[in-house]
């Protein structure tokens, strides 16, 4: 055993010497171009990029060497193939300065642009990394897993001013998620914060309507982010690689949304086989990952709720028969296969199934009191990535089969299934220099989305944004009835060009064209961004563009005369990175919304008469080091709209002027402790001032004051989280407790009224919500 | 096609076992509450030249229910039929116009030649603080639903006062099809369960009022409404 360790060290020494020799021989091949702002190039699936050939951005780039290259302070991070930080790695500048990565994998070193760093750590293959900018992420592979593979990845700046990207490890350190890291989205500046997920998909951004934002998983839209009960997202924490939050100003490759988007990236399988299980009071699941041969990685997970086994005993003697309360499944699969040096293939699949059935009586045969909702979807995506020198491309085909099936009593029903298929292709060409510009990236892409919606509905008229809900529902109201098939053939194409103009300025300009086939509408959406390096640590960004959302929400699909909603977004931001691990970013935005879909004044038909504006400012400050992860976010927002010309301006339903989140997490040995304080404004609501009995229908019809003319009170709470990890035989175990609202501050979330609107009561924030669980990895 | 807000709220309330829902409002079956419970036209459909009388069942906080004629009433629609409603002493009376006038109204409203003409009324009580709308159908004939086949504690109901045992489920039923009839049970004594089903039950818990009234309101598909009220005591 001892001799094999010595032999291994000797072999590593030879490898380092050989690499240094190779460096000396190729010193002149370092990139000459000064690149003060890195291009926002997304990482390829599997987080690997083979730069062994002579691409413009590769390690062995063929551009002539500079006479005197500009030195920069490089801050970076060393991670392993699982994305975990690698501490104690030697980061060496070509026989010159050297430093060690800290426990978070972070390092800081001064190096000339174009220089090569040698990254070395026991147990890993030695890796070279080229200094192309001020940030760098280096992936080390376990020794012997992939000989001669050199992996280099630049840490891209946020996708737009105000955007943020967090990986799984960071997300897990923000308390208050109740064990679900996607719920930490509420800590993002600009995300409307309440204790329960909001709206159509579960996330509302910058005070807009819920349907104005999209949730993507691996780049493709999914119909919902959270399971019914709202405590869990449809993707478990361990199956998530990273979360991109882009509240606006996103690039031309994204469309069909007029506000912001959230993109979850699933986790590629580990190079090392492992199995793990987790059980909590909410759900339990298993996950497996590993490799098949040398070229294929897999990740597979499945989860089932457990809360449905516990909840009936909590309901007690209420007049409810909880036939299924609520039961959910979800499953995830991802397979990454390296076809060749240039081609990688990714297959991912995701499915979720939620069933809820409530009979508002102890008599389970009382069909008039039965509410049943069954929603499920499955999405499968096949994606091929090509990368060779300056060229890269992505070809993808994705299909989704979602169904929403609900019945309420004897008369009302919604059955809506809308299978869709989405082919997508995107081509990218990079060049270190072109036409006097540097770090040039040209992108072009196209996609289609063809949906066949099978609709069978018989419901009352659904309220639009700002219209008070029918607090007392008439279960016999089927005024909106439709049964049939609707085709929605949409297509889009886009192109953009990004380049450095001089040493401090980077410009991104592009356009996207969307064809919304049902309405026969074609919309061109120009978008652009200007980045200005004011100082080595300070970057200013200004973006502006047009964004559209097709009419596909609720009964919008029934009306083929509706146009897409439009928004013109203008965002200005500053990013300041004073030292390694610290980042402060601020942004201010103004969004002008037009052609918003509203009910007509005279009847229940829909029109594009609405207009609105949102303005606000956001701050996000983060700091990471070996032990600490801290987070401070604040958002101010003001969202107003005019539903019809001449009408008074009113607040959006989700206008939340103030939202502050401060979180800190400290890790030491086996323990991890975290706390999060949040304070945010209540949401507007429309008060009822009385009612009129419709004696024919036996329903009290409310009389309302002005739409959203009052606001629920401010809410604040403290969440705490503690994790303890240990080994038990071959298993690595982690026990966690996440407690929300520890000092039990009960604030009014909204009000609800008695059946005749003569009395009012409140729906309050949850007094205390503990989440306890155990996770084991084999 | 989702109904996110309501569903999220309902599901959240259920899932969290009502820990966040602080509902101290009167339930819809509570008779001890100021409101209009139902408005009745007798008969609900009126042939040309015939008359119907309008009254309502009212509930009061701290007082028994009462049948009362409206303090004020107006015709909301159709326009031109304002004269069909008139006060007659203490009563409000609808008089159906002639067959020719109804035929003209059908043409104006785009109704079939044999269709009933809906006359929508607004009735006020308590100086306008309590308001309801009621449709009387002109040009036809029908009667309000009969209050028969009612069983209370598995015994055929009579108008006599009721005495029930506390801390026991007391079954209440009326033999009506739930899909055709709208049935509402109300009480100011005990706690009502399944108040909006033909088969309900009443239970007087230890902390419930032990005396009050029990009411049954039945609506049919012809616009007919009827009710019956009992005095009830638990002992």
Number of domains of chain B: 2
Number of helices, where a helix is a run of at least 4 consecutive DSSP H or I residues of chain B: 2
Shape of chain B: elongated
* Helical content class of chain A: under 10%
The CATH topology label of the largest domain in chain A is Maltoporin, Chain A
The oligomeric state of the chains shown is heterodimer
Query: How far from one another are the termini of chain A?
Result: 25 Å
Reported CATH architecture of the largest domain in chain B: Sandwich
- Spans of chain A of at least 5 consecutive residues whose pLDDT stays below 50 are 1-69, 144-155
Q: What does the largest sheet of chain B look like?
A: 5 strands, antiparallel
Query: How many strands appear in the DSSP assignment of chain B?
Result: 19
- Structural domains of chain A: how many: 2
CATH topology of the largest domain in chain B: Immunoglobulin-like
* Rg of chain B computed from alpha carbons, rounded to a whole number of angstroms: 21 Å
Characterization of the model:
Chain A has two domains: 2-153, Immunoglobulin-like (Sandwich); 184-777, Maltoporin, Chain A (Beta Barrel), CATH 2.40.170. Chain A is 5% helix and 53% strand. In chain A, the strands form seven sheets. Chain A has a 24-stranded antiparallel β-sheet that branches. In chain A, a hairpin with a 3-residue loop joins strand 15 (283-292) and strand 16. The radius of gyration of chain A is 27 Å and the shape is globular. The model of chain A is unreliable at 1-69 and 144-155 (pLDDT under 50). With 235 residues, chain B is mainly beta. Chain B has two domains: 35-138, Immunoglobulin-like (Sandwich), CATH 2.60.40; 150-234, Immunoglobulin-like, CATH 2.60.40.10. In chain B, 10% of the residues lie in helices and 46% in strands. In chain B, strands 2, 4, 5, 7 and 8 form a five-stranded antiparallel β-sheet that branches. Chain B has a five-stranded antiparallel β-sheet with strand order 12-11-14-17-16, with no helix packed on it. The longest helix of chain B is centred in the N-terminal third of the chain and has 12 residues, at 4-15. Chain B starts with a helix and ends with a strand. Chains A and B meet through helix 3, strand 17, strand 23, strand 36 and strand 41 of A and helix 1, strand 1, strand 2 and strand 10 of B. Strand 42 (760-764) of chain A pairs antiparallel with strand 1 of chain B, so a sheet runs across the interface.
